[in-house]
Each structure stands twice: as C-alpha cells, then as structure tokens.
Task: structure prediction
Amino acid sequence: MSAEPCFADVAEGVKAAIAAYTQALDDGRTDDVVATFWPDGSVDIPGLGAHEGHDALRAAYERVAPRIPQRHLVLNTLVTEWSAEEATAVSDVVFLLQRDGAWGVMLVGRYHDTLRDDGGTWRFTHRAAEFVAS
Result:
C-alpha cells in the first residue's frame, strides 16, 4: 500500500505537467502537447479558442505550431487547491518570439489550470489563459 502524496509531491507533479506542456508546445510536438491532457480535457485560451477532447485539441495546436523560435516562460506557479487526485494552480506566463535574431516579449498573461493524477503523471482536465498585455 503506497502512502498518500504530500503537498510537495502534488506541486512537483503539477509543475512537471506544466513544463512538459510548455516545452512540447514551443518545440512544435503537437502529440506530446495533447498527451498532457486527459482524453476529455479542455482549453480556453485567447487566440487558440475553446476546445475539448484530444481530437479537437490536436487540431487546434496543429494550427499554432511554431514556425519560428518561441518560448513560453511559465513562472510563479502557485498550487491553490490540492488532494491526492486533483489540483488547481495559477501561473504567470511570458511569451517570447525570436525575429531577426532578437527575442521580444509578445505577451504577458496568466494560466488557470485544473489537473488530475493519472497514476503518477498529472494531466490537465482544463487549462485557461488570460492575457494582461500584448
């Protein structure tokens, strides 16, 4: 019988899911982005839209696959509620795009996430974003 996870275990699992999503997104690995969601997971992100389920998520993320180098810097992740099975978190995001050899800030925003444990791997049930500057 395994012990119930503590807050640190849950927080690290949540941060790992966010990092896996972000790195796959910036690398253009659409299938890996989709894999960070539950099969009925959903997003609501300005510019991407609202989508639910792996097929809809795959189609949406394929449309925004990077054509030039980009980085989403996800910072200040705060797990706001948690249990052994589910957690919510809020994170700040800064989106950088490389053009003509220089990096520039394209937008600043905040993610609101709900994740559920999938046998030791945390996956998004819902990811929403709001942008505070563009």
Q: What stands out?
A: The radius of gyration is 15 Å. The chain has a mean pLDDT of 95. Residues 7-133 form a domain with the Nuclear Transport Factor 2; Chain: A, fold (CATH 3.10.450.50).
